[in-house]
């Protein structure tokens, strides 16, 4: 999926696909999707709570799969634009 960083629709669609393919916990996946849907309703990206929940999931499940500089940069850009 092509990510247009300033388009909330593009970012939310991207995050939905990103988490669906990376989060193994059904509980955390559902919670992340609820945050994404809430953002959609508000026509914004609530990136801080989304990022915090994803970080909590990663710490709890010891899932530190983000290792590429490209993914680290993506998170930095999302936080810069949407918080």
Structure explained in plain terms:
This protein has helices spanning 8-22, 26-42, 47-61, 69-82. The protein contains four helices and no strands. With 83 residues, the chain is an all-alpha fold. The chain has one domain (8-82). The mean pLDDT is 91. It is 73% helix and 0% strand.
Summarize this entry quickly.
This protein is mainly alpha-helical.
Mean pLDDT: 91
Straight-line N-to-C gap = 22 Å
Principal-axis shape equals: globular
Estimated share of beta-strand residues: under 5%
Rg estimate, integer Å: 12 Å
Q: State the low-pLDDT regions, or none.
A: none
Structural class: mainly alpha
Helical percentage: over 70%
Query: Main sheet?
Result: none
Order of helices and strands: HHHH
- Report the count of strand segments: 0
Number of domains: 1
The helix count comes to 4
Provide keyphrases for this structure:
83 residues, 73% helix, mainly alpha, single chain
Helix and strand arrangement:
Layout: H1 8-22, H2 26-42, H3 47-61, H4 69-82
Helix pairs in contact: 1-2, 2-3
